[in-house]
Amino acid sequence: MKEIKINDSSSFHIHLLSKVIDMDQYPFIKLIIENNITFEEYKELMGSLHKLNETFEQQKEEGLMDYTILLIHFAGMLNEKLEPNRTIYALKKEGYFPSLMNTFIEIINRDEAKYKRR
To answer: Name one Pfam family in it (predicted).
Structure first.
């Protein structure tokens, strides 16, 4: 069993909760905890995601068909502690911004298929 250093009671309590909760059901929360994302970093991320989702909805209404630039923007705005693809799949599984995350996953899958053909 992996030795865990617990510095304070909050860390200890979170560690205990992670043992009784199926963290696979909450992959985004798991990423936040595993990567030591602070409350400020979390708020910044969620604010940026809300703005990005608004842009996505506006562009969709205007008839834009390719959202690759939004995916690139997402990857660029993401905290360096988080990996873009893993974060997208985690957000989708927890139900955050479903239309935007589905669109990002479609782009990722399309690009992966394109590179496999080469």
So the answer is: DUF1878
